[in-house]
Amino acid sequence: MSPIKASPDQVDQFLQEYVLWTIKNGRLHRQYVFKNFVQAFGFMTQVAFLAERADHHPEWLNAYNKVTIDLITHDVQGITERDFDLVRKIEALQYPIK
Amino acid sequence: MSPIKASPDQVDQFLQEYVLWTIKNGRLHRQYVFKNFVQAFGFMTQVAFLAERADHHPEWLNAYNKVTIDLITHDVQGITERDFDLVRKIEALQYPIK
Amino acid sequence: MSPIKASPDQVDQFLQEYVLWTIKNGRLHRQYVFKNFVQAFGFMTQVAFLAERADHHPEWLNAYNKVTIDLITHDVQGITERDFDLVRKIEALQYPIK
Amino acid sequence: MSPIKASPDQVDQFLQEYVLWTIKNGRLHRQYVFKNFVQAFGFMTQVAFLAERADHHPEWLNAYNKVTIDLITHDVQGITERDFDLVRKIEALQYPIK
């Protein structure tokens, strides 16, 4: 069973709660800035566990202390509850921020 | 002491040895494809150690089983021995490839 | 629903297939030796993903290039299919061995 | 050049500053407790980077949310500045604690 694409209203409501996330190229998008590479990669490792456990993986890039995460549900070419849920879990991590 | 920018000839010679690497946007560039996310992130973890120990970090992105690495030496806005050396160390890892 | 404790015969049969594993202190036990710390921790990262996804975690220790894994199902204070299954997944990783 | 074994007074002084560390079996020793496995392994990943960069590695074990670290300098079969320094770096990590 494929997840259902979120409506524009549902996306808006989500972004009001998670204000550091935006929509970029049709994806849920956020950049994180850490103190250094070790802190950035420590965060990535935790996100990687969440993603693997949810079987839902980000498109993400890292350059030294910066980590950029993009989320989309490829099955429906749009944003779904699976993306919202991964954001919630990522944001619930108590990672050290710069 | 800043590292010295490699000459076009030195870059060419390097690419002849590491044939899966190319120049893209002025950076040493390669994409790796793994069996799955776990293998991809296991590889990334090993590269992260090499990078941190060398104090020279990649710009890289991951999407499920794909890892793309870009290397440049920001101090000289070009490719240097530090980039060559990190490639050599990455390629010396015996990681499982798809 | 708790998993069922494996019978001595089932354990024996399993150990005949996975000959580098033994029983030690009532746990499925194996030591791995890698080339260096980076390879060892790269392996650990992959095992950590398998464990988290299975929601079944090892007791393990690391000293430089050595990783020792012990598995038991705490709910039944014995070895169960959950332990066998995690061993199968770990052994299916194509990690580089010394 | 080998590092020099710390005197009992130097060790005592260190333990007064890092009160959650003790001496156990001739090693600097501490147990950390995290919220869950993901937080524990995220912490381990950061420590692994510090260790690899210092070329000084712990003997450590993990069971779910618990991480136990033991440090000794094998060259001199005792505790040295290298161990003190790794503790300082580990304790400077801002990891989330239960």
Brief sketch in words of this structure:
The structure is a homotetramer of 98-residue chains. Chain A has 98 residues and is an alpha+beta fold.
Quaternary state of this entry equals: homotetramer
Strand content of chain A: 15-25%
| CATH overall fold name of chain A | Gyrase A, domain 2
Spatial strand sequence of the major β-sheet of chain A: 1-2-4-3
First and last CA, distance of chain A: 40 Å
- Total beta strands of chain A: 4
Quickly give the structural class of chain A.
Answer: alpha+beta
Radius of gyration of chain A using CA atoms only = 13 Å
Helix content of chain A: 40-55%
The number of distinct structural domains of chain A comes to: 1
CATH top-level class of chain A = Alpha Beta
- The CATH architecture of chain A can be named as 2-Layer Sandwich
Q: Which chain pair has the greatest contact?
A: A-B, 16 and 16 residues
Low-confidence stretches of chain A: none
Query: What global shape of chain A is seen?
Result: globular
How many helices of chain A? The count is 3
Largest sheet properties of chain A: 4 strands, antiparallel
Task: Write structural notes for this entry.
The structure is a homotetramer of 98-residue chains. Chain A has a single domain (1-6, 21-71, 78-98), classed as Gyrase A, domain 2, CATH 3.30.1360.20. Chain A has helices spanning 8-17, 37-54, 81-92; strands spanning 22-24, 27-33, 59-63, 66-71. Chain A has 98 residues and is an alpha+beta fold. A 4-stranded antiparallel β-sheet of chain A has the order 1-2-4-3, with helices on one face. In chain A, β3 (59-63) and β4 form a beta hairpin. Chain A is 41% helix and 21% strand. The mean pLDDT of chain A is 94. Chain A contains 3 helices and 4 strands, in the order αββαββα. In chain A, α2 (37-54) crosses α3. Chains in contact: A-B, A-C, A-D, B-C, B-D, C-D. At the A-B interface, α2 and β3 of A face α2 and β3 of B.
